[in-house]
Specification:
Layout: E1 9-11, H1 20-24, E2 31-38, E3 41-50, E4 56-68, E5 71-81, E6 89-98, H2 100-109, E7 117-122, E8 125-129
C-alpha cells in the first residue's frame, strides 16, 4: 500500500502581521523553479542544496500597489532558512501557501470592490490570481 504524506499548507505572513521571526529569519540561496495557483493555494516548486536537515520557508507580503480599481500588484518574498545544513544533495520540493487571507485583506481595504485581481510577484516571477 502506498502511503502519501499529507500536504502542509502554510499562511502568507501579511504586512500587518510581520514579527520578530521575519526580521531574524535567514534568507539563504534557493531556486524558485515553478509557480502555480489552484483553489486559493499557491504552489511553489523550489530546489536547494542540503538534504541532512529540515529547511524552513516563509512567504512574506512585502508591499502592494493598487494599479486600478480592481487590480493590485502584490510583491511577495520567499525566505529560506537551511538551519545550517551543509549537505550538498540537490533537494526539490513543493511548498503550498493559502493566499485567500491576502485577497480578503485587500478586499476589506477596498470595500466598494467585490472582486479584485492580484498580480503576484514572487522573487521576480509574476502570476495572475483572481
Amino acid at each position: 500500500m502506498i502511503s502519501h504524506k499529507p500536504i502542509e499548507i502554510s499562511d502568507i505572513i501579511l504586512s500587518t502581521n510581520k514579527n520578530k521571526l521575519v526580521v531574524d529569519f535567514k534568507n539563504e540561496d534557493f531556486y524558485l523553479e515553478d509557480v502555480s495557483i489552484k483553489d486559493n493555494i499557491l504552489k511553489l516548486n523550489v530546489s536547494y542544496s542540503g538534504g541532512c536537515k529540515k529547511h524552513q520557508f516563509l512567504l512574506v507580503e512585502k508591499k502592494n500597489l493598487q494599479r486600478a480599481k480592481d487590480l493590485y500588484d502584490v510583491q511577495l518574498q520567499l525566505l529560506h532558512n537551511s538551519n545550517n545544513d551543509t549537505c550538498k544533495k540537490i533537494v526539490t520540493e513543493d511548498l503550498f501557501f493559502n493566499i485567500l487571507p491576502l485577497k480578503t485583506k485587500l478586499q476589506k481595504e477596498n470595500k466598494d470592490q467585490k472582486d479584485i485581481n492580484l498580480l503576484l510577484i514572487i522573487n521576480n516571477i509574476t502570476i495572475n490570481y483572481n
